[in-house]
Amino acid sequence: MQLATKENVTIAPAEGKLGLLIPGMGAVTTTFIAGVEAIKRGLALPIGSVSQLATIRLGKRTEGRSPRIKDFVPLAGLEDLQFAAWDIFEDNAYDAAVKAGVLDRPLLDALKEPLSALSPMPAVFDKDYVRRLDGPNVKTKGSKMDKAEALMEDIRQFKEKSGSSRLVMIWCGSTEVFHRPAAVHQSLKDFECGLAKNEAEISPSQIYAYAALKMGVPFANGAPHLTVDCPAMMELARERQVPIAGKDFKTGQTFMKTLLAPGLKSRMLGVSGWFSTNILGNRDGEVLDDPGAFKSKEETKTSVLDHILQPDMYPELYKDVYHKVRINYYPPRGDAKEGWDNIDIFGWLGYPMQIKIDFLCRDSILAAPLVLDLVLFLDLAQRTGMRGVQEWLSFYFKGPMTAPGLYPEHDIFIQLMKLKNTLRWMKGEDLITHLGLEYYD
Ligand SMILES: NC(=O)c1ccc[n+]([C@@H]2O[C@H](COP(=O)([O-])OP(=O)(O)OC[C@H]3O[C@@H](n4cnc5c(N)ncnc54)[C@H](O)[C@@H]3O)[C@@H](O)[C@H]2O)c1
């Protein structure tokens, strides 16, 4: 990308409708869509959404310029959002939301009309990648390339029917089993050959991502598995000038971790152990009960501490942190997860202390506003001419994607500063460094 300066960044206007394409219509997707419909009808506020509620300070603290982000950069309006989803089950969004059990029935009943009108398109699915689920609403014909073509046809038809002028795709489907980039992921040519040859290493989420990128549609991955974080997909994103982002929404326990760990480190307090355990009983919990899927989650959940605490730089404080993450499927809790953390820390003269966190959270309530922000910001990035990995959206992810060879930034406060500075940069405003010497001249 040409290095932009204040003078040459231009943002195309957010004209017309924005179509959202969502593989997976479970708890997160239905909570997100029901939320947007409720907000549009004045039944709720977009709580948890930075794009809708946060302000951004411009210029000096004395200037008193702090507009809301949504009034500062041209984002699509909630009334312009159109939805399409794929799922292996045939339930419409109302029935799926009732089954997910996140939102109260009276609210869902008030939104029954728009939710019942959304039925999922047949999915591209492979039981080898999500072993605990199976459903009837799937595309069965042809090679993986034929399935990618079928998804592209779904996208074309949705665009036409909904009258959307722009599209964004966000993966809110189940977590797939852990796998590393293989030979087939090393270049676009290899990947396309692999699609034609039904290469086992290509997962369903990668077939969706390929279809999206091929059609110039930005893509975000809300789950922890490998999708666009491989050379072939990055090549396609660059070639088609499309922004991509991932992976694994930063909600619940990892959100807490990225709030607390930078605080402990900022005061040079040591950490000897961090034990995190969860109980959850939704469909996501059932999928994560499979060790292959859990391995994907474990990778994104555990990498966070190492990057924040930097044990190589501070061996006396963080060299031997014993970090353990557990997820237990416990049906009685449904979507209302409980995440416990026991943190063993040490201070002055090595004296030990303990911190206990018991977060009685609601997974999909925390994830839904992240979906909203991500789709609006990816669309903005696309209209600003940004392509490839969008590191400024790291704020939303447990395992942020970066340029090859670059370590990810996990500290949520640095991530937020980066996000806001990127918005300032887009609009030609001064970046805020927090130096502040000018106030004391
Ligand atoms: N809720 C959170 O806080 C949170 C945080 C981080 C990540 N995530 C991830 O977001 C994803 C969605 O979470 P959820 O709670 O909505 O799960 P969910 O199980 O309720 O919904 C996932 C849906 O995806 C469908 N699906 C599976 N494979 C598919 C495919 N190939 N194509 C189309 N549909 C497919 C399933 O049938 C299911 O309906 C999961 O991967 C989860 O790990 C959620």
Describe this structure in words.
This protein is an alpha/beta fold. The protein has two domains: 295 residues, Rossmann fold; 108 residues, Dihydrodipicolinate Reductase, domain 2, CATH 3.30.360.10. The protein is 38% helix and 16% strand. It contains 16 helices and eleven strands. The strands form two sheets. It has a seven-stranded parallel β-sheet with strand order 3-2-1-4-5-6-11, sandwiched between helices. Helix 7 packs across helix 8 and helix 7 crosses helix 9. The chain is globular and about 65 Å long. It binds nicotinamide-adenine-dinucleotide. Nicotinamide-adenine-dinucleotide binds next to helix 1, strand 2, helix 12 and helix 15.
What's the architecture of the largest domain, going by CATH?
A: 3-Layer(aba) Sandwich
Number of domains: 2
| CATH class wording of the largest domain | Alpha Beta
Bound molecules: nicotinamide-adenine-dinucleotide
Series of H and E elements: EHHHEHHHEHEHHEHEHEHHHEEEHEH
Q: Give unreliable regions as ranges.
A: none
Structural class: alpha/beta
What is the strand tally?
11
Largest sheet: 7 strands, parallel
Mean pLDDT: 94
Percentage of residues in helical conformation:
25-40%
- The N- to C-terminal Cα distance equals 38 Å
Strand order of the largest sheet: 3-2-1-4-5-6-11
* DSSP summary: helix tally: 16
